[in-house]
Specification:
The strands form four sheets. Strands 2-3-4-1-5 form a five-stranded parallel β-sheet, sandwiched between helices. It has a three-stranded antiparallel β-sheet with strand order 8-12-11, with no helix packed on it. Strands 6-7 form a two-stranded antiparallel ribbon. With about 775 residues, it is of the alpha/beta class. The longest helix has 23 residues, at about 1-25. The structure holds zinc ion. Zinc ion binds near residues 707 and 748. Keywords: Repeat, Signal. This is Nephrocystin 3-like N-terminal domain-containing protein. It comes from Leucocoprinus leucothites.
Length: about 775
């Protein structure tokens, strides 16, 4: 014992450092195996050398269900991206910048309460990486309720790597390094700034177009117009060019030092729609513009790192109003600067959209910030109602950006320039295309920029017989569609054009394209997840995506660096709406069919496979080179679950019956080390027919023998298929391997009562031992 204590003393000194390192370091910056190893090691030594700990355990102290560090924020999708041309740019996109924009992941949420015991393999030591702020922060934000289901994965540093050896490593605790501004940046959305690399080249007005609106807005900003209200709201339907106007205004105001901050929301492009990162993003940009504000905010973020995770109104108060109160505004150059928020309707959650408007309006009413606010959005009902309310109306001026034939001449200028570039590239004569053709295209575009831009990309499609043939298809389409919907209905015509784009994809590839769009919508916008779920190689994914390159772009050379970008949100909206896309729709029948197919597949895999090392797929399943069975299986499980959560499509009785019979325990066990999906509670349960809910997902007392948890846990399946998944703190559960107890803890996170096992368990254990050892 003396020797043990001799070893134990220095170890006890080292342990807090080691523990702090392992727990605070973001999981994606350290190989999971190494991290788990250190945590296990730490736990082991704590168990071994800490007498108080041993006493607590043997006395059967009150269990601490799910005692774990706060979860990490979502692992960011890499942010190398391309432009979204909601309105065409003047020149062909140049090559992408080499410098990647800064990652958008928040820093690890700080702990409000430091647990004195390290959870051996707590949920936090693995890394499904949800957003939640520390659970003990009273006003921390819950996951955005009105959003689409969002799932969170961890990315492993050495994905699928085996036999990792770490030698001569030097680990430095960098969790508190860096200034408060760096911390703030991690809680921001830099990809949504007007000058971000992810939006490069940004959609902006073709030279000489939209001057009327740009002048109107800049004059309002400079207080040179009759519009005295400090908020200006520009509304108009999709594709009319709001973002392009906002971008042009941002650049114009920046050139005269009148721009405070910008945010360009995008629902269909990764990490640019998070309401919780709006005021942090604005505060960060102001901090980079005004050094005295920057110093104050940096200090605040260092002293109170949880500020960035508070509610929207608290963030506004703590990150903008209070720091600005300490700044000499007249000398700061901030007075009258403009904050531009583009595409508010694309921010996640209508309640959050409206709350933001109210917070901003209250601020301008009380003069708590020195800014003018330019906001654009579609005229969605909740936004219109909020803008029309009696408190906001007096401080808000409005501009409509309609679909208007008044801009025909601007569209003609744009088309002329684009065709000039195509002629040059292909050596076509000056006479191509004829003036009649140009006039017809302007006529069909009928003032909708996104339509005209999509037509141009369609004509340029590299996977076609060439621009002449593509133009011929457009002209035939125009003739055909004009008979169906008449003139001047570009929104309806846009749908017909999207239909044409999808119909021109060969049927076999089309189904794959639909599945890509579906996985992108319900599971992840990360191409590597999409490809793994669908058993596609990088090359196959690229080919499929290039078949619809008029509406989307796949950047990057390999799966890990690829990014999917949509030119305009309206395409995915179209593909999800069965009224608009009819039999091409990725929701509706297509989704239901996929869900059933996946469920049949899961049943078959569960019945054929023995364990996660021996997953057996149905006959004829071919995996592309480099894709492991386990990875594919894990992503299919995640995809299937995502499909079960789509609120527009509750499960029918037939599917629910089959789901209730799924061997959940085995399904999770087969995940091995691969599944890492956090499931918000209730989402899938709400989608089940009432009579099936308790058979598939329910909350109840932990059924594991000896478990000392007194609270409720999530339970999957029923009867012999019943299993307790890993619990995800207070948020839900995790689709992960849940086999076995870890270090005396139940799978639900609580302590297991010590003592003699029941006789049946002991017999089973001996039998298993004999089976394993006998030849
Ligand atoms: Zn339990």
């Amino acid at each position: 014992m003396y020797v043990l204590n001799l070893i134990g003393f220095p170890l006890r000194l080292l342990l807090p450092l080691l523990a702090s390192y392992c727990e605070h370091r973001p999981p994606h910056t350290m190989p999971r195996r190494a991290r788990n190893f250190f945590i296990k090691l730490t736990y082991f030594f704590k168990q071994f050398f800490d007498p108080s700990r041993r006493a607590v355990d043997s006395n059967g102290a009150a269990p601490q269900p799910c005692m774990s560090a706060p979860k990490q924020p979502p692992i960011p999708l890499s942010t190398h991206a391309t432009a979204l041309l909601s309105q065409p740019a003047t020149t062909a996109p140049p090559s992408l910048p080499l410098v990647l924009p800064a990652p958008t992941t928040p820093a690890p949420a700080p702990r409000d309460v430091e647990p004195t015991i390290i959870a051996p393999i707590s949920a936090s030591s693995r890394s499904p990486a949800p957003v939640p702020p520390p659970t003990s922060t009273s006003d921390s934000l819950p996951p955005t309720p009105s959003s689409q289901p969002r799932h969170f994965y961890a990315r492993e540093m050495f994905h699928n790597a085996q036999g990792i050896i770490i030698s001569n490593s030097q680990f430095i605790d960098a969790s508190h390094a860096g200034s408060g501004l760096e911390r703030l940046l991690k809680f921001s959305m830099p990809d949504a700034f007007h000058d971000s690399g992810a939006r490069y080249p940004p959609p902006k007005c073709h030279l000489g177009t939209r001057n009327e609106y740009i002048d109107l807005i800049t004059n309002w900003a400079l207080e040179k117009s009759n519009r005295k209200e400090p908020i200006l709201w520009m509304h108009g339907p999709f594709g009319v060019g709001k973002s392009a106007v906002a971008q042009s205004c941002a650049e114009a105001l920046e050139s005269i030092d009148k721009l405070a901050a910008t945010l360009f929301f995008s629902r269909s492009n990764g990490d640019r729609d998070d309401p919780r990162r709006v005021f942090t993003s604005i505060a960060y940009q102001i901090a980079t513009k005004c050094p005295s504000f920057g110093e104050i905010i940096s200090r605040r973020m260092t002293e109170h790192p949880a500020l960035a995770t508070k509610s929207l109104s608290k963030q506004f108060e703590d990150l903008l109003v209070q720091p600005l109160g300490q700044v000499d505004i007249p000398g700061s150059g901030l007075e009258g600067c403009v904050v531009i928020i583009d595409g508010l309707d694309e921010c996640r959650g209508t309640a959050e959209q409206c709350e933001m408007i109210k917070i901003i309006a209250a601020s301008v009413d009380k003069h708590t910030t020195p800014f003018r606010w330019f906001i654009t959005s579609r005229p969605e009902d909740p936004i219109v109602r909020t803008m029309n309310s009696s408190t906001i109306s007096p401080v808000c001026s409005r501009v409509e950006l309609p679909v208007s034939r008044a801009i025909d001449h601007e569209i003609l200028v744009y088309l002329t320039d684009e065709f000039k570039l195509i002629r040059k590239d292909h050596g076509f004569p000056e006479s191509w295309p004829s003036e009649e053709v140009l006039a017809l295209l302007v006529e069909r575009g009928a003032g909708l920029w996104i339509y005209v831009g999509t037509i141009v990309r369609f004509i340029k499609d590299e996977n076609s017989l060439g621009p002449e043939d593509q133009l011929r298809i457009v002209l035939e389409f125009a003739k055909d569609v004009s008979g169906k919907i008449g003139p001047d209905n570009p929104l309806a015509e846009m749908d017909f054009f999207y239909t044409l784009i999808m119909q021109r994809v060969p049927p076999k590839v089309r189904t794959t394209v639909q599945k890509i769009l579906l996985v992108h919508s319900v599971l992840s916008d990360d191409p590597s997840y999409v490809a793994t779920a669908l058993r596609l190689s990088a090359d196959q994914l690229r080919r499929a995506c290039s078949s619809i390159q008029s509406v989307m772009e796949l950047q990057g050379s390999d799966l890990n660096s690829m990014e999917i970008q949509f030119y305009h949100t309206s395409f995915l909206d179209f593909m999800k709406d069965p009224q608009r896309s009819k039999d091409l729709c990725i929701y509706s029948d297509f989704l239901i069919r996929c869900r059933r197919e996946l469920l049949v597949w899961l049943h078959e895999v569960c019945s054929r496979s023995t364990d996660s090392e021996h997953i057996v797929f149905p006959l004829g399943t071919v995996l592309p080179e480099g894709l492991s069975s386990a990875n594919h299986y894990a992503n299919v499980v995640a995809w299937f679950w995502g499909l079960c959560e789509v609120p527009e499509h509750p499960l029918d009785s037939q599917t629910a019956t089959s789901l209730a019979e799924l061997p959940f325990k085995k399904m999770l066990g087969l995940l091995g080390d691969h599944g890492e999906l956090g499931i918000y509670d209730g989402q899938a349960r709400d989608n089940l027919p009432a009579e099936f809910r308790d058979k598939i997902i329910r909350e109840g007392r932990c059924p594991i023998p000896g478990c000392m948890n007194t609270g409720k846990v999530w339970i999957l399946g029923h009867g012999e298929n019943e299993t307790v998944p890993r619990q995800w703190e207070t948020l839900g559960f995790e689709l992960e391997n849940n086999q076995g107890l870890r270090n005396g803890k139940c799978i639900c996170g609580a302590q297991i009562r010590r003592g003699r096992r029941p006789i049946s368990a002991r017999i089973a254990r001996v039998a298993q031992f004999l089976l394993n050892t006998l030849p």
